[in-house]
Amino acid sequence: MSTTLDPTTTGAGPGADGAPPGRGWILAGLGAGVLAIVGGIAGATVDAVYDPDVSGDAGAILRRLSEQVPQILVFHTATMLSCALLVLFAVGLHHQLRTRTAPDSLVPGVAAAGLGLVAVAQLLGAGLTTEFAFALAEDPDLVLPESAALFNHWIGTIPWLWGGAGLAGLALFRAARDGAYAPWIGWASLVLGGLSALFLVSPLQYMAGMTGPAWLVVVSLGLLRTPRGS
Fold this sequence. Notes:
Protein name: DUF4386 family protein
Keywords: Membrane, Transmembrane, Transmembrane helix
Distance between the termini: 22 Å
Number of domains: 1
Strand content: under 5%
Radius of gyration: 20 Å
Number of strands: 0
């Protein structure tokens, strides 16, 4: 689909404060989305606490987790790299939105704040791996079985809290409606971002860990094809 924009509604808009940065921040967003998917897949394979064969048996869960240290380390590394890249993308997107929206628009701030929430969830979600992964690898008896079970629940939930990306997606939908981006980027943001936002306010918040990264990948690819503002 074409992403040719109307030059009268894009580029240096009323709130422009200089040309947007290069496309490195967009590539950072693409990398953050892909790495989040990798981290999510790796984290999903750390499934001791969800295995019906050992469910409710903290000792058995601990032993199973000690066999899943490689997956834990892949989850941790991918999630933390995604976190760092997401911060770069959020800053770049905020800058570009400021040049493409009105000076008093809330869109840039909402987009950046939403992505900031995701980065914090990733940081906290992977934060406990330092405490558990190496202890599990060295000697599982160093870890309380009940703590190991909680750790597995933690990494199976907290890093999946991508609901903040839904706020960013809805902000991009609004920007696209105002002509800042191609319509298809807006509609993709409405669908994937809207779902993520709905998950944010529901008891199924972790489901946004599937729709949020997908939105980020799609939008990053779209932004790569979008002409830079003047």
